[in-house]
Amino acid sequence: MNMEGISNESPEAKNGSFEDQFAKKERIKVTGGVAEVIDIKAENPELNMPVFFAPAWGCTTEVYKPALKTLSETNRRTLSLDHPRTGGDMSKTPEEFVKKYPKEELRKAMNILDIMDEKGIPHADIIAHSEGAINIAIAATLHPEKFKNIVFFAPAGLIGKNTFGRLLKGFAGQGARAPSLKAGETTPEIPVTDTEKQVAGKAITEAIKYFAKNPLRGFREGKEIADSDIYEMLKYLHKEKGIGITIMSGVDDPVFPMEKMQKMVKSEIIDGFLSLRGGHGEIGNHPELYMKAAEDMLRKMDQKKTQTNK
């Protein structure tokens, strides 16, 4: 028998385990410098639609490693990046973009678009955490054809008037564990897990490195986060471009309080709004609950579109 072209490798050996693929971060030149990119490929993806995860301010793929592993286990190709802290060239960015959008958030939006182009990804589903909501909103506004459905977890830019001082105070409030994670009359406790402990420690060390590499850029990013308002962009994306949008928000989020978000967000810009137990970072702390729920919302929005188009 001619065995040429027949591989004896196991399916996992073809692309490698999650750990193998995560360790092989690619360095890709983007508008903001050189980004480190993870690209976890499923052997037999259930859906032919990658999921791109956009990180929060000061967070890296190391912080989100358990969450990205959980996302990849939904049998979806999973991508994310560490935004460059130095270098970059905005000279090729169209002048009208530079005038219209905040510089650092535009830089991050262009980074994401550059990676999608480099990877040959024509369109993707998105999960964006915190600051990631701003740069994803900009990226999708610039190229809506590249984005199908978006889940915004604890998104920036949707609470109305904000200040840099209040933003910092909100981040400082993350030190206390969210009260809603405790047992209630009808809800069991969401206990502290090894993952939660690991992520908390990693978030501190990675944030220190993130800001130490470029304090000025970090400061400018923070100011832009505080000043951003993405409502009109989401309205355009949802109503005019048909992009699915769901918001997930923790009832104890000190950074972008849910009650302020609920007052601002109207049904015209979203498919759904999920009020969740916990605070600002639960998608990283408890990915088995929150990342799985986010990916499930992507599927539900896709199913809704399919039924509507029948």
Automatic annotation (TrEMBL):
Spans annotated as Disordered: 1-20
Taxonomic lineage: Bacteria, Candidatus Giovannoniibacteriota
Name assigned to this protein: AB hydrolase-1 domain-containing protein
Coiled coil: none
Segments forming domain AB hydrolase-1: 53-164
Source organism of the structure: Candidatus Giovannonibacteria bacterium GW2011_GWA2_44_13b
Sequence ranges of Polar residues compositional bias: 1-10
